Amino acid sequence: MSATLTTVNAILKEIYEGNINDQLNNERVTIKRIERTSEGTGTDAVGGKYVTFPVRTSRNAGISYRAENVQLAPAGRQGLKAAQESLKYGYGRVRLTGQLIALAETNRQAFTSSMDLEMDGLKDDLLRDENRIAYGHIDAAVASGIKAKVTAASAGTTITVDSTNHLDEGMVIDVSNAGTPVAGGTAITITGILTATTFTVSSAPTAAIGNYVSRTGDYNQEPHGLNKIVDSTGILHGLDPATTPKWASFEDSTTTSLTELAMIKNMDEVKRNGGSIPTAIFMSLGVRRAYWNLMTSLRRFNEPKTFAGGLTGLSFMYGEADLPVVADVDTPDKHAFFICEKEIKIWRDKEWYWEDRSGSVLQWVTDYDAFEALMKKYWQLGTHKRNAHGKMTNITEV
Fold this sequence. Notes:
CATH class of the domain at 146-219: Mainly Beta
Low-confidence stretches: none
Distance between the termini: 63 Å
Largest sheet: 7 strands, antiparallel
Oligomer: single chain
Helix content: 10-25%
Structural class: alpha+beta
Number of strands: 22
């Protein structure tokens, strides 16, 4: 009888490659750009209850021209208002058993140190999540922390939403109505992402059209994103465009076919509103394809180029300004944001850091052979000049 692989199976080895191959998208295009080119990351102005800053909203009305011996206009003054914002508090936790720390540490025991994998992975996940927060949901005016919006009523374990882009298998979520979880909608686990608009959960909530999906407990607890900051309506930093008209971004919700003229008009309106010129344009992938297609049809040079700050993308000429046009997977579908980056502000006490007040990052979990670590950051995203930005929200994607 001939020897075969089956007969010698007991002595065969399994050969493993030495690296863990990451299948996750870890890009953070927009938040990295904001950190590099914004007005700054404020650390000295945070603390206490609020960050407060003055905003000039109107001019001195005491200007006049008169004929000889005619009474002058009454004295005027500058119009000032106080904008106010509080920080949001972000956390990431990791728990490791003593056995895992001791027995999955060296190359002989595991592909990589389990402790390093979990702790470095948590930091990567928090940084990646920041880029999603930098935009927020298109309904960000309602609340922060929204990851998806229910688009079909359901009483089963399959939920239909506007997009599953920001949902992941294993994520623990709430399905809520105006911040109040619906029946069966508290702390349920996503068991699978089926399509771009459907996912399954561990138990069946009573979901209705218009309900929101968020990480459990996160509804309205995250920092602002560009969807709220760059808006023509809605209160931001305590100021309302309804009573402070200058505190409004330009918003184009009617243009569907992307043209150079429409983009120039958006730039013009931003410049007219506050005198600022956007320095970068962030687009969804489909809108970027529409822009590339437009440039090709006009026989324009459309090779990507590298701009100051390391950002790479197509370009858009506005006067003498050469703006980067950059696609970000977190930009909402059909959207293009025209951002004056120097007017974007990040307030924070410091970057993400491990809590080690007791002298050690790893803390023993009482009564268990296990250790836990906490990473945190107190921060907020905003602007000192809301009318320095604009957006297009209904562009047909290619």
